[in-house]
Amino acid sequence: MRWVTAQPTRRGALLLGATPLLVLALGYVVAAAARHADNPADKILPLPGAMAAAMAGLLFEPDPLSGQYLFWADTVASLWRLGAGLGIATMSALLVGLALGALPPVRSTLGPLVTGIAVIPPIALLPILFIVFGLGETAKVALIVIGVAPFMIRDVAGHIGALPREQVVKALTLGANSWGVILRVALPQAMPRLLEALRLSLGPAWVFLISAEAIAADVGLGYRIFLVRRYLAMDVIIPYVAWIALLAVIMDLALTFASRRLFGWAHLGAR
Amino acid sequence: MLSLRNVWVEYGEKVVLERVSLEIAQGSFVSIIGPSGAGKSSLLRVILGQEKPTRGSITLDGAAMPAECGPDRGVVFQRYSVFPHLSVLGNVLLGLEFAGSPFTARLFGAARRAAVAKAEAMLEQVGLTDSRHLYPAQMSGGMQQRLAIAQALIKRPRILLLDEPFGALDPGIRGDMHALITRLWREHGLTIIMVTHDIKEAFGLGTRVLTLDKRRHDPHAPQRYGAGVVYDLELTRKQAAADRPPERVEEASITIDTIGNN
Questions:
Q1: Structural domain count of chain A
Q2: What are phi and psi of A113, to 5 degrees?
Q3: Are B169 and B7 in contact (CB under 8 A)?
Q4: CATH number of the structural domain spanning residue A191
Q5: Which residue in A22, A33, A258, B21 is a FRET match for B182, CA 20 to 30 A apart?
Q6: B190-199 per-position pLDDT tens digit
């Protein structure tokens, strides 16, 4: 057996994949137990029981001040911001990316602008967004859009621009006009790439979401983490981070599944 | 039918084609051969309308041909001729959908059923009936080229342009494809212009063989002179065979011997 050609079976792969996660969890528990043996009031590495107790309050008991179930209110607020930001970014990537990729005059006109926006670090624009849009939801959604849309636009435009010239010529000889080429040749081939770009943008989108929430918000997963940090409340922070990771993994898998399901033709070559 | 008068193609300083004048008759099968860089593909692109000649004029039935690709000229490239996101049937339907519905480029209801029937008839002619739900990525190179031919023919183009269509295929498959294209050429009364590297293929299929090469060469400035038509051979015996009413028995078989048609 050579390492480069070894193919684990399905069960073997599952087992191998689970091992590091289990080792990490076990290592954490051992380290936490060791710290608690020294100091039963330790807050830095809370034991699982303490985390469960802290989270139970956020999950199942309404906050006395606002009457909301904080964990769920945080989740809904964050997912709404993320969804709105990614939705706008995806739509603009589809429209602008398609036009940039398929129409050379549009590429000449808007290409430099998109490139210029793409190289600005989005966090540097956050103060401007807060000044322009205020501290409400708009600024946070706008940060996500500005953070991920240029990458997605460039990715989709690049992919469409790189389609073989032959395809366009062929479509024209089949009687298409420019609109027909965009609709039946460029758009369908942009879709799987768009989903892939969206999937790769999930990570940055979460970064911008948490950043925006950390700076100015009154609800949200990132807001909560940065709030309880003041009390060294690792028993809340760690479950929140794990929850964010779980949400991100679910979104990633859902997008992969959707792409395979909707655009099966794009995954035929991979086999 | 198609006539080129004193066509030049230049890219900046580089002259690719010079003084190309041709008359191509309806129903002929013109093979274009020549060394690499002799402008074979440039000539094809000019006829296709993908490029504008620097000088000279191209007329189709006496009317100047626009330097734009259109449905009067079909094309099959060596690769990338079919759309990877469409099934075999979808690929063939596409030409009918563009014509039938300029805004959505899709057909519905009775119009779609009629188009599907037409497309399936075309697929039967190239032997892809059983593969109509496959995607190009699931097919061999030969099947993809059959599909590309069917896709082009459904538009009933005045001229079919083939750019090394069989260059990437195995020799065995290539023989089948030669038989197929010969049969389709006769049945549909096509005018075909084919660029190829394979001299045997050029003479085996064509009724006329054009050889492109440089007539003059300046060793200090190899870019200075372009290629022109140095040999123009009419294979009259085969043209006569083509004009004869087609023999049914021969056409039914896909493995007909192309050499026998000479």
A1: 2
A2: -65, -50
A3: no
A4: 1.10.3720.10
A5: B21
A6: 899 999 888 8
